[in-house]
Write a structure and sequence with these properties.
Number of strands: 12
Radius of gyration: 22 Å
CATH architecture of the largest domain: 3-Layer(aba) Sandwich
CATH class of the largest domain: Alpha Beta
Oligomer: single chain
Shape: globular
CATH topology of the largest domain: Aspartate Aminotransferase, domain 2
Largest sheet: 7 strands, mixed
Distance between the termini: 34 Å
Bound molecules: pyridoxal-5'-phosphate
Strand content: 5-15%
Structural class: alpha/beta
Length: about 400
């Protein structure tokens, strides 16, 4: 077991010269999964027509079945898109909202999604409310009280991350979904960091809309995410791009539509024009890879390393921790005194070969560490020794 991080390091394509503690941004793909990705790409280039017109649909079905077993939902309740921004954009495109209504969110959301909500709310004259979350978080009750204090009769939707990008914190989403239901508010959950990070059971959580990235913690190649839509909202849902699977309800299109699935939801979304969907087919291989390497154990070793690293760094800085240990998984954002965040990041990369994101929020500066199966204690030691030199 002790040599597992080294063995796993060998299984990934990451440059061994870099201490890579930033899995959270775009993930990293193990060699066997990447190999099967390339095998699909090869098939596509060898048989472009057969692959695009026949194989794609069969492979998508197999992949959706595998993912739906993994996150516990019906395989026809989810579609693949390249990234969570695309998934959230699709939901925003479809929400039914009136001037004066409100969407409740937080000030911890991902920038691309904030931008889409801001644009849409200005166009349609509703309010996008970002509850100001006070850090450090003391406990769940305080967080929930602060969040719900921004809700009111006008709140029609909640948009919130289950694990936030800027802080790495795991938010109490099951509590929020339960309370939202009681208040008649629909939930749109941004679970970009969730699949293969913390358990996800869609049927149990029962959100209205949910997106997760699969190239992050499940380690698929770049460019695969899913959008889950509860059955009752699938009927009229529209893709942002309408293509050959769209229009079965229109007489004039009926004769030219090739229906690949009994589900309209699947048909209107899965063909979006010529594109390389090879990453979409790799879900079964990625799940199999993590099963083979006992990822439950790998994950718990990573979680321990995150807590230990955070303890060691805050011992040096004497700065507060932004949340209790139990709010963390594979990632932690740690306050650190930094004069110029851009040059600090450059120095870490150029002089110490360390890859981590560095950020500033209000008056604080911080960085985020991610620990994945390929990271070893030596990576953390190198980070901490370097920080000691730089502080
Ligand atoms: C919480 C969260 N939401 C959404 C996204 C959007 O991802 P992308 O830019 O790939 O669409 C990210 C990306 O890291 C994220 O962390």
């Amino acid at each position: 077991m002790n040599n597992l991080p080294d063995a796993l390091k060998n299984m990934f394509l990451l440059d061994p010269e870099i201490t890579f503690l930033n899995h959270g941004s775009y993930g990293a793909c193990p060699k066997p999964v990447f190999k099967s990705y390339q095998k699909y790409q090869m098939e596509l280039e060898m048989h472009p027509v057969k692959f695009m017109q026949e194989d794609v649909y069969r492979l998508l079905e197999i992949s959706r079945k595998s993912l739906s077993d993994y996150i516990n939902c019906d395989k026809d309740d989810l579609i693949y898109v390249s990234n969570p921004t695309h998934a959230v954009g699709t939901v925003i495109h479809n929400i039914s909202i009136n001037p004066g209504d409100e969407v409740l969110s937080t000030n911890l959301e991902y920038g691309s999604c904030d931008r889409m909500w801001t644009y849409d709310s200005e166009q349609k004259d509703y309010k996008y409310i970002q509850a100001d979350i006070t850090l450090p978080i003391e406990n769940k009750e305080e967080f929930l009280n602060e969040f719900w204090s921004s809700a009111n009769e006008q709140t029609k939707y909640i948009f919130i991350s289950q694990i936030t990008s800027s802080t790495g914190m795991i938010l109490p989403i099951p509590d929020i979904v339960i309370e939202a239901k009681k208040r008649g508010i629909k939930t749109i959950i941004d679970g970009a960091h969730v699949p293969a990070h913390i358990p996800l059971d869609i049927k149990e959580l029962d959100p209205d809309y949910y997106t997760g990235a699969l190239h992050k913690w499940l380690c698929c190649p770049k460019g695969i995410s899913f959008l889950y839509v509860k059955k009752e909202y699938q009927e009229g849902i529209q893709p942002m791009v309408k293509s050959w699977g769209w229009g079965e309800e229109y007489e004039k299109f009926k004769s030219s539509i090739q229906l690949h699935s009994p589900s309209r939801f699947i048909n209107v979304f899965q063909w979006q024009g010529t594109t390389d969907m090879s990453a979409f087919f790799t879900v079964p291989e990625a799940i199999q890879f993590q099963n083979e390497y006992d990822w439950k154990t790998v994950r718990s070793r990573c979680f321990d390393m995150v807590i230990e690293a955070r303890n060691r760094i805050t011992d040096i800085t004497k700065l507060p921790k932004i949340c209790p240990d139990s709010w963390l998984g594979h990632m932690a954002t740690i306050l650190f005194p930094i004069e110029d965040t851009a040059s600090f990041k450059k120095t870490l990369y150029n002089d110490y070969q360390i890859e981590i994101p560095v950020m500033s929020h209000k008056d604080n500066t911080a960085f985020r560490i991610s620990v994945q199966g390929y990271n070893s204690e030596a990576d953390i030691d190198h980070l901490i020794n370097s920080l000691e030199e730089l502080i």
